Amino acid sequence: MELASYADRAVQLVNTADPYRDQDRLTTVDDARALLSRQGACGRLSHADLVELRSLRHRLRVVFDAVEAGDPQQAVAVLNQLLEQYPIRPQISGHDDTDWHLHLAEGAPSTAAAYGAKACMGLAVQATEVGMDRLGVCQAAPCRDVFIDTSTNRSRRYCSERCATRANVAAYRARRREAALATSGVAT
């Protein structure tokens, strides 16, 4: 089992909110169901699951923001608290004519707790195997989506190609504007 792949759950959960633009895509149980179904993890959901997922989302955001701020100790402290709150409950399974494989969080008290255990474990594995500095926040203002940098040279700065393109075009236009002002004799 590739535990690091569960880190995508943390990224997707955090990216359901953009507190800097006051956007939230996790306000209803149906929103939570849509999020979990993208991971093939949809069980019975209640309003309590929604509340728990929103709380988990906020705490996972703190992890990414702490890394961005250069405070990996804070990120580790929060992540350790989350691992304690959402312990994994591994179980070997062989269903649907598949080989034996490991499931995490089987028997968790709620669907949100199962999702949380997998997301936190995946993020912890990523952070310890490839480094805390691989947890990133998009540098294309105003986007604040998070990502995990899996590039070979640790150079990823944007959450997506769309944001990278937008930032590059904005930088190009700013350089052109500055050059035009310089040639016209107007001081910047």
Automatic annotation (TrEMBL):
InterPro entries registered for this protein in UniProt: ABATE, ABATE_dom_sf, Znf_CGNR
Gene3D superfamilies xref list: Jann2411-like domain
Location of the Zinc finger CGNR domain: 134-176
Alphabetized Pfam families for the sequence: ABATE (PF07336), zf-CGNR (PF11706)
PANTHER family: BLL6575 PROTEIN
Protein name stated in the entry: CGNR zinc finger domain-containing protein
Organism of derivation: Actinocrinis puniceicyclus
Upper classification of the organism: Bacteria, Bacillati, Actinomycetota, Actinomycetes, Catenulisporales
